[in-house]
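[agent] plan:
  1. take the single chain provided in the ticket
  2. run structure prediction with default settings
  3. attach structure tokens to the ticket
  4. add a short note for the reviewer (M.T.)
[agent] executing step 1
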Amino acid sequence: MKPKIPSKINMVMGNPISQSKSPLLHGQIYKLLKLNAVTVPVADSDVGKLVSKIRTESIGLTAVTMPFKKSVIPLLDHIDKTAKSINAVNTIINKNGKLFGYNTDIDGIQYALREVPLKNKNVLLLGAGGAGHAVAHVVSEQKGKLIYINRTIEESFNMAKKFKGRVAKEDELDAGDIDVIINATPVGMFPDVSSLSAPDKVIDKNKVVFDVVYSPLETKLLQVAKQRGAIVISGIDMFVAQGVCQIERWTGKKIITPKLMEQLKKKIIEETL
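[agent] step 2 finished; step 3 output follows
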């Protein structure tokens, strides 16, 4: 029996691209939904060449990874208002030659935090990059109270100006004043698995702790938080949900269900361990 040739070729673009699990995730979604498609990784240091490839080869869906989530924006024809608000695009949909930019990281964060009431909660946010902005957007929309700590204090003040909240220094933090801890930095990501992304003194049993990092599945932050009795949320929830939402944008169909999410999480965990 001859192998089935994919009728649709999609893309994930970045530089480097070898670390991306998006082709694996998309492949599992295609399989479960019986879609005849494949997502191929393409690396290039020139974002313009990558966007030209999308246009000339009529690529329907492109997942955008670092470092192009911001630099790709001026090259697109239309930017969704949510992506515009955080100045980052992680999804490009080609609609009859017109390129539309979206950000499904926000959808992924909303899914990961779906059972966490954020209204009037004090949320310590680590990270001021694309993921940090997406987290701040979600927390702000749900009326949470943001507390920012970052290596670059200017970035913290910029985020506080945009999403409200207050900027703090590490030595000013009091565990009793924090309800939720969210790491939106790469600290703790493989191979840097021994690094703790949040100040040790604020991690206790009264916290909800969410780490956007999904490799490893249980970061040092989540290990410490779990040992101390906190509620922990792995980045795998966000990663899988944002990928499903990318396919939804491409197909125009609502496909996310609890059953699908659990199937995909199981598959990704099996493939990455």
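[agent] step 4 note for reviewer: The CA atoms of residues 2 and 216 lie 37 Å apart.
[agent] ticket updated
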